[in-house]
Amino acid sequence: MVILRWYANQSRAKAHWATPLGSEMSHQGTGPVVSFENVSKHYGSLKAVDGLSLELRRGETVALLGPNGAGKSTSLDMLLALRKPTAGKIRMFGNDPYHAVKSGQVGAMLQSGGLMPEVTVRELVTLVAGLHPRPVPVNTTLRRAGVESVADQRVDRLSGGQTQRVRFALAIAGECELIVLDEPTTAMDVETRQRFWSSMKEEVAEGRTLLFATHYLEEADQAADRILVINRGRLLADGTPEEIKKRAGAKRMSFRLVNANEPFLLGLPGVVSLETRHDLVHIQTSDSDATLYALLGAGYRPTEIEVGSLGLEQAFLAITAEDDQAAGGAIPAATAMSDN
Amino acid sequence: MRGILMLTQAEVNRLRRNRRYLIFTIGLPVILYLIIGKQGSKAYGVQFAAYYMVAMATFGAFAGALNGNSIRISEERKVGWIRQLRLTPLPANAYVIAKILTSMVISVPSIVIVLLLGRFYGDVHLAMWQWIVIAVIVWLGSTIFAALAVAIGYRFQPDQVQPITMLVYFAFTILGGIWFPLSGVLQSIGKGTPTYEAVKISTDVIGGASVPAGLVIGLVVWLFIFAALATLSVRSMAETV
Question: Do B87 and A101 touch (CB under 8 A)?
Fold first, then answer.
């Protein structure tokens, strides 16, 4: 089965996406919590991060969304002073990242972060809390991370989900102002994931800033008040979940139409992307009414018309796939997620 | 500094519970001394029991510093613990410093036990200053191997570290005259090793001979070389831990 995906010219929409929404927000008059200024990280000819600029403001919960290999982890590594940018400047609380990490202003949990073997959960949390200038009582941390029941077990004998929660415990073992989490709920079951986010909300309610990378779009949609979409090392979209959905084309439309003329359909008002399979047509549009009226006005009589709202997942796919297509010619929709 | 000490304490607690490690650093030298310590009459111009006491003290301290650290560091790098530590307020070099301090702490009981064994089982009688000088030389000498372990552990994957460590271990024990005193060709090859230098300095101290400056310089040079290698390993791996 051949799936073709066409994209209308989106230059206007794209320019809009990359505009930060900062102006209308006022946060205690202080500078940004995090700023990336034209940051790049190259490994030989591979541009893992390519001219990334962004700012995080105090109290925000921000999701960093992108397909595998988009540059999420590299960006977080640079933010946390684990890697040095090839070019550009990163500031955290107005300082260099190393300084901010060493002064305990940031608590972080990385996928690649591991645990000290041969000690119990309690011993490990106690150690990491002790390294912190403003330690949180160990029992509080154990409770918040939901690892009280395994506190006296050895860390190398935990399940994947438990290990993940212990990593989270280490991230919140000290009083910090920024929490950075890389794919925090990987290896958690649904129930654990929900518990995780409810304890996360406790942390953020105290005025902390939260930045998390995820590939669970649902999670970004529910937890974040701002989403940054990155692909191939660049920032593609920056806005609330609603804005992201809207900017990718708010509505999804499908109908059956024999002998559909693709260039004609792409030229309809509001059309953002098009996919046809035999006589079945799927359209993403920013204005479903205008699209439909124009189609009918041209004399076509499509059948089985369905109009629905676009989920964040489709919005995300549309944004990244359009970017990949612009970079490397037509890319089949099926590979758009993983191939970059 | 407080953080480094906390980490060192945690590392010492871990090692104390590790039976395999304790067998290597304390068990093996003690057993070898009980079996072989009183078998010979003389070596390197001193009573055999005294030579073997020094050799076993060196063995425990250096094997502990090498075996304990190289494999652990490599494994902890692989699981991401080093990375996790870098996200804490602990300074970047704290991990390595804590590892070296830990092996210095954990080698103390192994040195003391072997020396006590030499005194009461091997019947070695020395002046107080001689006991102290021997203990300190062996103790400080073990940092040479702690540095080498850092260099190996940072550079190689766990499955590579195992054979490399065993190779270094056997080379320095056999060529260093740890398991039996060296003579002839083996001695001319082995006398450049830090293990030989540490043992020979100690037996010279016991025998009342003047210690050649070359032996002491040799130890310092080894320390310098391995510390430089360790620094290189840590730096070059900084972005991959």
Answer: yes
CA distance A198 to A183: 16
The answer to whether residue A340 is domain-embedded is: no
From the list B3, B14, B239, which residue is nearest A118 (CB)?
Answer: B14
- pTM exceeds 0.90 for this model: no
Nearest C-alpha in B relative to A100? B89
Going B127 to B131 to B133 to B134, the CA torsion angle's sign is positive
Which residue from B13, B88, B239 is facing A131, i.e. has the nearest CB? B88
Residue A86 and residue A156 share a domain: yes
- Tens digit of pLDDT for each residue in B158-169? 999 999 999 999
Domain membership of residue A164 (yes or no) is: yes
CB contacts, 8 Å: A132 with chain B: 88-89
Q: Is A102 on the interface with B (CB under 8 A)?
A: yes
Stated length of chain A: 340
- The answer to whether residues A222 and A257 belong to one domain is no
Pick from A122, A131, A78: which is nearest to A104 by CA? A131
Which is nearest to B161 in space by CA: B151, B172, B173?
A: B151
* Main-chain dihedrals φ then ψ at residue A43, nearest 5 degrees: -115, 100
Cβ proximity of B139 and B57 under 8 Å: no
Counted domains in chain A:
2
State which of A194, A226, A244 marks the end of a domain: A244
Cβ contact A247:A322 at 8 Å: no
Report residue B241's pLDDT band, with 50, 70 and 90 as the boundaries.
Answer: low
Partner-chain residue, chosen from A82, A117, A174, that has the shortest CB–CB distance to B86: A82
User: Which of A116, A109, A103 has the alpha carbon at shortest distance from A156?
Assistant: A116
Does A137 share its domain with A39? yes
ipTM of predicted complex = 0.87
| CB atoms inside a 10 Å sphere around CB A203 | 18
Structural domain for A192, as ranges: 11-244
* Domain harbouring A63, CATH code: 3.40.50.300
Same domain, residue pair A286 and A148: no
Which residue in A110, A112, A116 has the most chain B C-beta atoms within 10 A of its own C-beta, making it the best mutation to test that interface?
A116
- A186 shares its domain with A72: yes
Q: Is A114 on the interface with B (CB under 8 A)?
A: yes
A83 interfacial to chain B (CB closer than 8 Å): yes
Q: Which of A211, A244, A277 is the last residue of a domain?
A: A244
